[in-house]
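Budget justification, computational time. The allocation requested in the original proposal was used primarily to generate structure tokens for proteins on the priority list. As evidence of use, we reproduce two of the resulting records. The first is shown immediately below.
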Amino acid sequence: MFVIRQARVEDVPTLLKLARMVHFINLPADREVIYSKILRSRECFLKAAGQEVPEPHHPARDNGAGSGLRAAMRKSEFFMFVLEDTDSGAVLGTSQVIAKMGGPGNPNYSFKLTRREYFSKSLQTGTSHIVARLHADESGPTEIGGLILQSASRGHHLGRLLSFVRFHFIARHRPLFSDRMIAEMMAPISLDGQNMLWEYLGRRFIPLSYTEADKHCQRSREFIEALLPKSDIYLSLLPPEARDVIGKVGEETIPARRMLEKLGFRFKDLVDPFDGGPHLEAVTNDIPIVKATRTAELGPAIAPAHATGRALVSCLNADGEFRAVDTPCAEERGRVGIPRAAMSELGWARGTTVGVTPLDDAEPARADAKRRERKPKSRGRKVRS
């Protein structure tokens, strides 16, 4: 059985291996950073369960150390999930969500892309140029990210489960999260960690390698606004190989982007100022998974053959232990029943309060197909339009 739970300290070695598979700013291949993220995540799961957790004191220094991603994580609720194969005990993947990314005095940076039009009356011809301008967002949107699945587990809907659990959890604890959600997608990166936009643009203003700048963001992002230009940057001045990565994602990130776009995320001409990867965004309450998620009571166990559908079912107990599973289910008298094997594996008993997301209703394509099945058949009459 595949179960999603909160990350634990004993997961650090596996998460470090997963982090080395990709180049994510929100899951760097750094043991100390991963360890601190897990501890913060544990605190936040406890708080979400209603436990009193003392807030750690981390005074910001004048050199901008209070503006890094670590500081943003300390100031916001942060949740890290892992996918476990309960048969082997192996952790196969991870994902995370930051309730409020940045805020007043600690903006989230991007490049805003705008088209500029020029026309010469004497020549009777014109040109258009895409310009990039540094954009600082202090609204504190919810950010999803850090989704990594080991290559051997891909193609079995496990990546979808790791992605969906974040929206499911957000719906269950809606007041913690913002009304707008963003996903910063990874641009094409070479095997040695290079990015063409950084080499031809970012590095001309910030004297660091792409990896060094990425790592420094964990401690401080002050250098982004201090060193990057505030005026329009004409992208037509860059070589084609640098322009070509802007707004695009790496090959391994294409499925994740398609999944988010099916859920209503849209590209609104904001890209990462380092690598040019697109920032997608959505209205939180409009995301189908958020809309479809509800709270229910766990009823008596059912035989798998008696299931009427599949759902993502979760429970966060009083000790801050979170577990979720994609399982067959059935509703009876307002309660949700799942197979006895799942209840036993998860340690859930009848009467437990759970979160439920019917997966047919959470995915637009499936929901549309289901509605078409229910649509009355035509009796062959023609109707004029």
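The second record produced under the same allocation is shown here.
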Amino acid sequence: MSDVPSDLKYTKSHEWIRVEGDEATIGITDHAQDQLGDMVFVEVPEVGAAFDVGDACAVVESVKAASDVYSPLTGEVIESNEALADSPESVNQDAYGDGWIMKLKLSDPEELEELLDADAYAEFCENEDH
């Protein structure tokens, strides 16, 4: 499996979360984009949309399948990566950078404690692949 950045948090549904203060940048993991294949379409949420943990908040579509992206935290969308409409391949090329999907203003920072760290996520992926 590819490297899992240690400064991020993760979900078992393969979203990554980078937290800065009370804001979180969210995308799908390198593992997820690798499983899905070449992205052909990404639907990002609208700014101002509010999500609870586990709500479907975006859609990624690849040559293989369409998949929902789930909100790992409760909050309001303060920014969406509109560039993905024209360049969905950014998710494949730079999942943890230019391929981010949305930024949330967190409603409940304590939810971060429920997320996986890099080691736990890497172990989860290894077990899932076997």
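A brief technical remark on that second record: The first strand starts at residue 9 and ends at 10.
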